[in-house]
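Work Package 3 (structural annotation) set out to generate three-dimensional models for the target panel prioritized at the project kickoff. During this period the team completed the workflow that converts sequence records into discrete structure tokens, so that structures can be stored uniformly alongside our sequence database. As a representative example, we reproduce one entry of 354 residues exactly as it appears in the project archive.
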Amino acid sequence: MDLRSDTVTQPSPAMRQAMAAARVGDDVIDRDPTVQELEERTAALVGQEAGLFVPSGSMSNLLALMTSLGRGDRFLAPRHAHVLTHELGTAAWIGGGIPLELPWSHAPGVPSVADIEAVAAEESRRPAYYELITRLVCLENTHNHGGGHIVGWQLANQLSDAAHAAGWRVHLDGARLWHAAAAQSVSPARAAGNADSVTVCFSKGLGAPVGSMLCSSREFIDRAWRWRKALGGGMRQAGVLAAAALVALDEELPRIDEDRLRAARLVRALRQSGLEADEPATNIVLVRPAPGDGFTAEALARAWNEAGVGCLTMGPAVRLVTHRDIDDQSLADAIDLLTTATNTLRHATGVPRL
């Protein structure tokens, strides 16, 4: 049972059938009809005018930065944001942006309005022409390193309003925006707040094999389309991929909150086994050994992987992610394996078994 990520899912039979039967064209020359359908539908879902289909969320975020920033412009992002720590530094290396980390003042992975206003106030007082100029705020919803924490839609609006008041654009890395919306019982458009551009991912949570979407105004997407070509992201008969993403929207979006409920069930079981685990906001679970356990997160992850449950370490915690390929029975089996492996590890380190 693989709980390393919600990117490990297998395409459903319906996705495979749709891929085989997809209407396709040359998306670089005169567009692909299935890609266009996906772009229009996704843009409407997140409350934007237009969309641009890309191979990955990393490319989508980079396109947003390249379209929003001039070389040497500064952008703000929460500490451990994906655009800062998981994209090879391309925001600066290729995009030419200079990052400034925002603290997690409001919640894990979430800055406060005051954080943005403080940077804006400091910048407004600087008279020197050689100082950095901020152009963009990047938010992440849900925040991966924050344990899948949600930026509530009301706070998302307030953060965007604070950035706009300073004259800055807002880009939302909403790779798992679907989960944030479902957990709040709101539409993806509302969960996205007042962001000027939004990235969503079809292979995280929705189970499609590949693909993300950058959504924004039509003018912004027209410029991002040129940057996509520059990065080699122009795909030809990409309708075979877009077809799977369309099925994912139909099949998986209505059921996606089941992942959060299973994550909560997993946390309850792990707490009963004596481990420390944060209450999950969505489908990401962060687990830590109890202070008296005598072993590290790395040792715990190794024991769990050897027991047959895939997991990853994330700082001082072990990360488990529920997804569409883990049903109730699979989760029950995983809990049994995790509990047994934890007790075996405790026995090996001389800690009483629970």
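The chain has 14 helices and eleven strands.
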